[in-house]
Amino acid sequence: MKNFRYLLITFLSLLGLCACLEEGRFQISADDDTIPGVPVVTNIKPLAGGARIYYDLPKDEQLLQIVAEIVAFNGKTFKFSSSYFKDSLDVWGLGERKEYSFNIWAETRGGIKSALVPVKVTPEISGIWYVKESIVINPGFGALIVDWKNPQAQTVNVFVDLDFMMNGERKELGLVYSSNADSVHQVIPDLSSTEEVNVSIRVEDIYGNTTDEIVENNIQLLKDSKIPKRDANGNPIWVLPKTNDSIDWVPMCFGDGANGRLERVIDDLIDFKEGTTSQTNNYMHTNFMGRAGIPGVQMGNIWNLIIDLGDYWHISRVVTHQRWDYTIGNPRGTLYQGENVGNFALWVLDEDEQGDRAWNIYGEEISGTWVRISEHYVPIPVGLAPIEYVPLGVKGDEAYMFPQTPGYTKPVRWFRYEALSGIESVNNIPYAGTRSNCLSEITLFGMPKGSIDDKDVIIK
């Protein structure tokens, strides 16, 4: 036992000695003006828009870091450093596929620099060029849609310059989107669908390197209009099947929980301030009784809302409004949180694809096959003050039936909205909430049957 004690004391003493020696590395000596040795470059690995420099460290107790310096495309100087623990240094900002020359050096804790070591490298193609080559521009509905991919996941700035007519006046608009996401789908809304748009796009990295411009002129945006819910006399056009009705074995949801009413989801009124207006409690609430129509799941929080549009329409997009339910002290209310739907799918009934039975709905026999068009997530704004959520909630959240290649459905009469999950986060994972209970309003846009060219009809 005594031997074990002696060994333990010796071990702890050695640890203390090593710690003291290591601590000595971090003590800056005012008298130490010794110039450190240079790092010896052993290998250079080209990277996408950069390079990794491998080296042997100089032997100097006061060594702090290895430093590289480049002059970027925009004339600004950028420095990159790596601590004495590492044997390599990454340098970025080399935006072109050409040979670059720059210097690296060693530096002590007292700021003493070694002699400069010249380095030459030809990098791999920078990420900005991958982004530029992936850009796709599509006309949207009174909007322009820009998609791009960023396989290197490097932070890029995408500059979009628009030139268009609005209310008889020529407008110029410059936009910048900064992202390191591997895929971006950006909608530029509120443009005139009756006027052509000219656009130029270039991509820049954070070091000022930039691509040449992509230019597309005379882009004709797509047209649509709100599909009416009522006729000229104010009588309802849209119809909701009864709660226990089914189409293609897909039952309707129960929407009458917590003071909500199912029919209010198509009344053209959004949920407004509690207790003060005629729009009080203007939402539907499933009360956890969704009826998914999924085999083996009779009662669940996934639910379907099936709407008879009263006529045949080429549907283009849907705008949904959430339950708001705010008070003076809480202007945000339940917007983009709580029990609101966060993830949903859009379906239409294709009556050209006959099923093996017909369903009697309000005296009509309807047959066909439900076609799942697309799936969407309600975007969750972050970093806003409570009052800043209000205009977003009032405007509503738009989803294209065909988000990647905007277009119209074939003429359809029956539309189905399927709630998949709530908007709330669980363990910091968004859209993981099971409480997808609430919805205030659904509004559809499109064109009447036969009013558009067949080339704009997307068949699923």
Q: How many individual β-strands?
A: 27
Low-confidence stretches: 17-26, 293-299
As a whole number of angstroms, the C-alpha radius of gyration is: 31 Å
Helix-residue proportion: under 10%
Beta-strand content estimate: 35-45%
Order of helices and strands: HEEEEEEEHEEEEEEEEEEEEEEEEHEEEE
Mean pLDDT: 85
Structural class: mainly beta
Number of helices: 3
Shape: elongated
Major β-sheet profile: 7 strands, antiparallel
Distance between the termini: 80 Å
Could you walk me through the main structural features you see in this protein, from its secondary elements to its overall organization?
8% of the residues lie in helices and 40% in strands. The chain contains three helices and 27 strands.
Provide keyphrases for this structure.
single chain, 460 residues, mainly beta, 7-stranded antiparallel β-sheet, 4-stranded antiparallel β-sheet, 3 helices, elongated
Task: Summarize the entry for a quick read.
With 460 residues, this protein is mostly beta strands. The chain is 8% helix and 40% strand.
Write the layout of secondary structure elements.
Elements: H1 2-25, E1 40-47, E2 50-56, E3 63-71, E4 77-83, E5 88-92, E6 100-108, E7 117-121, H2 127-134, E8 136-139, E9 144-149, E10 156-166, E11 169-179, E12 183-188, E13 196-205, E14 214-220, E15 225-226, E16 246-247, E17 250-251, E18 284-285, E19 303-321, E20 341-350, E21 359-361, E22 364-366, E23 369-377, H3 389-395, E24 397-400, E25 412-422, E26 438-439, E27 441-448
Antiparallel strand pairs: 1-2, 2-5, 3-4, 3-6, 6-7, 8-9, 9-12, 10-11, 10-13, 13-14, 15-27, 16-17, 18-26, 19-24, 19-25, 19-27, 20-23, 20-25, 21-22
